[in-house]
Design brief:
Shape of chain A: globular
Radius of gyration of chain A: 24 Å
Number of strands of chain A: 20
Oligomer: homodimer
Distance between the termini of chain A: 64 Å
Helix content of chain A: 40-55%
Structural class of chain A: alpha/beta
Chain lengths: 523, 523
């Protein structure tokens, strides 16, 4: 290293890029440096992997599926709503067939984009258009970290994931329970968990559709958390629910109840078929996507019948199984391409798009990283507006990992930086600097460099760029080991966001009353 | 898993997807299943990160740099050639200034694409347009694997990397010595190494520009290896050289000699400025790319003056330093965006484009994987035609890793699969299958599935998709551990490609004669 390089060098310790904190992390108390709160905007043209004609073929195939095969709706009220709108409802069963007019009538009613309101308005998000939001991973039955291994989900781990999700600015909202706290009885789990979301974080969270009562509790708790009236809640999307069709071609009772409860109150329905090609969908990407699209369109029709104009997000989750074992795979080339077609379809319908950061690895290793990258690039290039499972997801969703949260935070921050346009101007082209330095010299000491070096480049949270010898002397830690130290540092630094005492009291009273009433029945 | 899933399940063992070998790996003797030899073609529109106007600003800035600052050419003959063409050559030094006319005259002369001939015609490559070729990593001073650790480069490791590069179909050519065999004296190293390339592999290789003699030896050995005349070699690009400018704005003697020797014989010059923003280039991406572009254009002008129409590849290698330590970083968000702008510039000039698969990790871990993915996506989305360092590169080029070769082979295969268009047809849309299966069932036993399942999806080389319990019982191996077993398996399975005995003899005689003459002098 030259003397001038030494001149610019700063004492940083491992990852402690405190020099940048003033700029980047003004809303963080101390310690782990990270990007400031910001919602990425994607300025690039989306990548298209099928032609316009091929896209129309997929659309037409979906309409044909809905018209000829139909879809099972396992809910009486839902069937009545659909029948009332002219759908062909089988008199002796659950099968509902849609003619194309019914589908076309639903298109264009849901908003292209909307604001999703958090209890802290600074955490509000735009869902749609060129905006992107990253969700914490959700719904894993197990959790794991390096020190303590893998264990069934529990409330302590649940709360630790909430702390990480609150502390990391690149996690914009919570897409469900990061891990299922199995030690809390199912009848009251949602009350404790939503209460934790509201008191321990100030970001948007998600309501599971596991029976009407739970949806209604979530809606009321969201209203209380925001300190608003019912009327304001009905005007302002503030809560979202993931509706998974039971592929192939079925919507179950709690899911349909969820759509009814949420859409009626103008809250967000994210319809996501889980179309695993070769298992719950055809073994071809085109066929799996056609089926995904049919299921998503059926959900759109129903949602718009419940409440025309209610916010709706088109979800894509098409992947493939390992045909040798039947095991699901994620972050595969098929997955990435399906994510891109999903984006094309969502844009065709003028709907916000949801994708995911998925992988099938059993350990936070190179596979976890590359499968996640394949998923994330599919999401970002496909202009996903909502990226679920963005931080912490492992094992195809069976485990939430503390180290993976940190690894993913790095991947997400890098994506956010990738999406920042290159500034091309007289100043950034730097012709004066190039003339000043001239051939055969270096830019370390140039004025152009000195004015910008502190903020010129992305500062990583996890990557270690020291040379081999220095890295080895310092303990030769892998990225996973460093992530292990970092998540503990983040937990230690966690500070609960402010909450109005009146709101806290009202929330506690609601939870106490509902617990006294026995919570919610099994879905 | 359902009964039907079991029905489709096949006994595979670890990664042994032998059922697919007949289809995919017909040119492999046995064992590790992989994609068959194929050159990926990129059917998608390239991603553009600057507007057309911004691209012109960068182009104009480059012209201004060449006109006002100029570039140092440290070679008398080169300066004479440039002076003869009307460049402004400083009478008392090495500085050469180019007016825009000189640059514009050079544009359009080099071919948009050309065939790069291997000694085995089945390994010929198209360089340019929508075609992509992946090079083995090159020029590392150290090598490493899990069992034996990191050590200075040696001939045994060199040969092992050649075996891997020959065996893995996704590695299309060799971009230099994968590791420097430091135990072979520099005067004869090129003779032994090129001899190994020709006898141990049948793919295209690269000639270092380290003095005229070495270029000429490489050219003659290439001619012998192909068994062709001088005239045929002069017609058919069969060898390539990387020319690195010494950024900022300098071309050194051996590099200029390399251009002269290679271009005169119609062989391929890949001009790659190593413009590390903040060190050898301005601290801004726009400035670093403008300088990269100036240097590449100067190289293009010179190459076309030496031999109008000689094949030329536009190389981009703009990354950034860690401004806290001066350490170079790779696979950063800045790197990915610079790779995409590089592609835009190369396309503007109608030139094939070279990018790289770079990372700065010291160990084959999650960081190595995600930085490589960031680099690779930049290359692929930017329509790179030649991806250097595609397999095995670590530590910003200071180490070649055996495990990383396997990891990268997986990443490259996944990219190749990602680039295969989704087939959208009546058959693949699978409406009959969807009708046959219907709501609430599964596709495992459907005829549509059974006809396709063996070849429907990408079969990974490294990824482990078993569930956690099975994976743990089998030893809980990370991807890096599995890569360690796999590279040894590949080495054990290596078979040298056939070589005509007459060619082998002629080659040996040439090498013996040149060694007797003392090899080549220091560059």
């Amino acid at each position: 290293m030259t003397d001038t390089a030494v001149e610019v060098k700063r004492e940083t310790g491992r990852g402690g890029r405190r020099g940048r904190r003033g700029r980047q992390g003004a809303d963080k108390p101390a310690g782990v440096e990270q990007l400031s709160w910001q919602q990425p905007r994607n300025p690039y043209r989306p990548v298209e992997v099928v032609s316009a004609d091929e896209l129309e073929s997929i659309h037409e195939a979906s309409l044909q599926i809905l018209q000829e095969v139909g879809m099972d709706f396992l809910h009486e009220e839902a069937k009545q709503i659909l029948k009332g709108a002219g759908a062909d409802v089988a008199p002796d069963g659950d099968r509902v067939r849609f003619d194309r007019g019914l589908v076309e009538a639903a298109l264009g009613n849901a908003p292209r984009s909307f604001t999703l309101h958090a209890r802290n308005p600074a955490r509000n998000l735009v869902i749609g258009e060129e905006w992107c939001a990253f969700c914490s991973a959700s719904s894993a039955p197990n959790s794991a970290d390096r020190d303590r291994g893998r264990r069934p989900g529990n409330i302590e781990d649940y709360r630790d994931f909430l702390k990480l999700g609150q502390s990391l600015n690149i996690i914009h909202l919570f897409g469900g329970y990061p891990v299922e706290p199995l030690d809390i009885h199912a009848s009251i789990r949602h009350l404790d968990c939503y209460s934790d979301f509201i008191t321990m974080t100030d970001k948007v969270f998600h309501a599971y559709s596991l029976g009407r009562e739970r949806n209604r509790d979530a809606l009321e708790m969201t209203r209380i958390g925001r300190g608003i009236t019912d009327e304001q809640l009905d005007r302002e999307p503030s809560l979202f629910t993931i509706i998974n069709s039971s592929s192939p071609l079925r919507l179950d009772t709690p899911m349909l109840q969820g759509i009814i409860e949420m859409a009626r109150r103008n809250q967000v329905v994210v319809l996501t078929p889980f179309t695993l090609a070769g298992a719950m969908a055809p073994v071809t990407v085109a066929g799996a996507v056609a089926q995904q699209n049919a299921e998503a369109l059926a959900g759109l029709v129903f949602t718009q019948l419940v409440n025309e104009g209610a916010p709706f997000v088109y979800g894509g989750f098409t992947s493939n199984v390992d045909m040798k074992s039947g095991a699901p795979a994620f972050g595969t080339p098929e997955y990435s391409r399906a994510a891109l077609v999903g984006g094309q379809l969502a844009r065709r319908y003028g709907l916000p798009y949801r994708s995911s950061n998925a992988n099938a690895s059993n350990v936070v290793d190179a596979q976890a990283a590359y499968e996640s990258e394949m998923s994330l690039w599919g999401a970002v290039l496909g202009h996903a507006n909502l990226v679920k499972h963005a931080a912490g997801w492992m094992e195809g969703g069976l485990c939430a990992s503390f180290e993976k949260v940190v690894l993913d935070a790095e991947l997400l921050q890098m994506m956010a930086e990738f999406l920042k346009p290159i500034e091309v101007s007289e100043e950034t082209l730097g012709l004066d600097a190039i003339a000043e330095v001239g051939p055969g010299s270096h830019f370390f000491g140039a004025a152009h460099t000195m004015e910008r070096y502190e903020t010129a480049f992305y500062a990583p949270i996890l990557s270690d760029w020291r040379n081999y010898e220095t890295w080895q002397e310092a303990g030769a830690e892998t990225a996973t080991l460093r992530a292990s130290r970092l998540y503990k540092k983040l937990l230690a630094e966690y500070e609960p966001p402010p909450l109005d005492p009146g709101i806290r009291e009202e929330l506690a009273a609601f939870v106490a009353r509902r617990k006294k009433e026995g919570g919610a029945a099994a879905a």
